[in-house]
Amino acid sequence: xxxxxxxxxxxxxxxxxxxxxxxxxxxxxxxxxxxxxxxxxxxxxxxxxxxxxxxxxxxxxxxxxxxxxxxxxxxxxxxxxxxxxxxxxxxxxxxxxxxxxxxxxxxxxxxxxxxxxxxxxxxxxxxxxxxxxxxxxxxxxxxxxxxxxxxxxxxxxxxxxxxxxxxxxxxxxxxxxxxxxxxxxxxxxxxxxxxxxxxxxxxxxxxxxxxxxxxxxxxxxxxxxxxxxxxxxxxxxxxxxxxxxxxxxxxxxxxxxxxxxxxxxxxxxxxxxxxxxxxxxxxxxxxxxxxxxxxxxxxxxxxxxxxxxxxxxxxxxxxxxxxxxxxxxxxxxxxxxxxxxxxxxxxxxxxxxxxxxxxxxxxxxxxxxxxxxxxxxxxxxxxxxxxxxxxxxxxxxxxx
Length: 400
Prior knowledge:
Elements (H helix, E strand, L loop, with lengths): L3 H39 L7 H15 L7 H9 L9 H15 L6 H13 L1 H5 L3 H20 L2 H10 L2 E2 L7 H17 L17 H35 L5 H17 L8 H7 L8 H14 L7 H19 L3 H17 L2 H12 L4 H13 L11 E2 L7
Helix pairs in contact: 1-4, 1-5, 1-7, 1-9, 2-4, 2-11, 3-7, 4-5, 5-7, 7-8, 7-9, 8-9, 8-16, 10-13, 10-14, 10-15, 10-17, 11-13, 12-14, 13-14, 14-15, 15-16, 15-17, 16-17
């Protein structure tokens, strides 16, 4: 058994190095992402090149990235069954692939990129410190936490995400200190580089009553079903493309053509991160089908092989779905948008604790009781299949 002081000193050093690497990588990524998004908005014609961009990224991954194509699932698999150090090329490949996706107009997120960069960079320290398998597991978890925390500006949620995402029904408390320290320091590193995160204001939280609790639970069920449907649809789209299109670069080419045609018909409301629409959901009624539009664009983009992440699109889907449910449940738009923002993610990723803490960090402590109920209800109703197929099931959600 390692003495507590030795353990603290060891992991303080390692977690701080992980945080410096992940926080710096996330800061560079976020600045580049802002530039790519701004360029696309000012040059809307570029979406017509999305099929060619998808083909190029698909060819690069086929040529150089077969070993790392699994992305987040590769990291989770390595934590469960350590085999070999994650190749460093995962970081530049996913960074470049995600920037191309956003520059040309795919509907993808950003958390996958930050998490994969954090995990890949952290794992290179395995050689430096000659870490054993058990320590390497903790190292990778710290990298995941640091990447998540630094890309969203939610250090506590990032720390818990790294502990919670591996398995349904189980937390790895042996990694709690490295994950906490790595997430907190990585967030501070990003802020030191000048990163600024979007935080959404909810002016007034209604008092807890029997009706508000019942309405929030009902909304949580809807959010969980939406998260489950998103995970199943994304996996099904990916499997369909692999069955029907043997040559991998052709998949994003076809998906990109479909997205570009949809943008021509419907406009660009459902591509990219969609942060302006998320902000709108907290202030005014939106079209009740906005969540479905983002859902479809993201499933096609991710299912055909574009790189990025699922979480920010899930925030969009949840916020706009909550906005649509607010009049039906007689609750304020900002409250339901905020609850949907975190609860659809909780259901799709099977991470109710991290999602609840994220609500506290983004919206303030007053939303805590409602966020906890919505996230847990979403988790219970989202089934046992989430967006990360490498996630294991340690316990059933509702007991035996």
